Amino acid sequence: MKRLHVHVGVDNLDQSIGFYSALFGAEPSVTKSDYAKWMLEDPRVNFAISCKEGAAKGVEHLGIQVEDGAELADVYGRLKVAGGPVLEEGATTCCYAKSEKSWIADPDGVVWEAFLTQGESTVYGDSPDFDQLSGDNAAATACCAPKVEAAPKGCC
User: Fold this and answer.
1) Do 75 and 64 touch, CB atoms closer than 8 A?
2) For the domain with range 3-133, which CATH number is right: 3.20.14.10, 3.40.1160.10, 3.10.180.10, 3.30.70.2210?
3) Domain ranges of the chain
4) What is the number of helices (H) and of strands (E) in the chain?
5) Which GO terms describe its biological process (predicted)?
6) DSSP state, 36?
7) 107, 119 Cβ separation under 8 angstroms
8) pTM, 2 dp
9) Do residues 7 and 56 lie in contact, with contact meaning Cβ atoms separated by under 8 Å?
10) Phi/psi class of residue 119: alpha, beta or left (left: φ > 0; alpha: ψ in -120 to 50)?
């Protein structure tokens, strides 16, 4: 079963942990000096926050977290059908986790990732080279999300 992922950049991690813990009625399942994550069942979401110097504040990216390779293959297929360039990052370390992931942006530059978490990491991890998704609409300073170019506007 898939899980929605939301990653939010914050100014004050401790204050935000207090706020989101009260909002969700639960403490984070992962807490680091610069990061916290809630794996909630109701609603079914992987909600993460981070406090990185120079990173954008607010929603950095959204994603779909899957539970196995078959679900990942299904979601990867959907990314290709959605159109636009897909950055196939592959095996990576990000947000204190080892994952297999790919990235895409919607027509307005909102960045989405599709990923399968394969284990924990003791380090936050690095961002890949997102040159193929470069542009001005997504947060250029997001923790691990690419800056992407929006598709041309249509009728609306």
Assistant:
1) yes
2) 3.10.180.10
3) 3-133
4) 2, 8
5) response to cadmium ion
6) E
7) no
8) 0.70
9) no
10) left
The distance from CA 9 to its chain's CA centroid, rounded to whole angstroms, is 11
pLDDT in tens, 7-37: 999 999 999 999 999 989 999 999 999 999 9
- The answer to whether residue 72 scores a pLDDT higher than 50 is yes
- Strand partners for 5: 46, 63
What residues contact residue 14 under an 8 Å CB cut-off, 6+ apart? none
Q: Which two tokens stand for residue 50?
A: 């981070």
Report strand pairing: 3-9 vs 111-120: unpaired
The Cβ of residue 60 has, within 10 Å, a number of other Cβ atoms equal to 23
Q: Please state, in angstroms and rounded to a whole number, the distance separating the CA atoms of residues 10 and 58.
A: 7
Q: What average pLDDT does range 65-94 have in this prediction?
A: 87
Q: Is the pLDDT of residue 150 over 80?
A: no
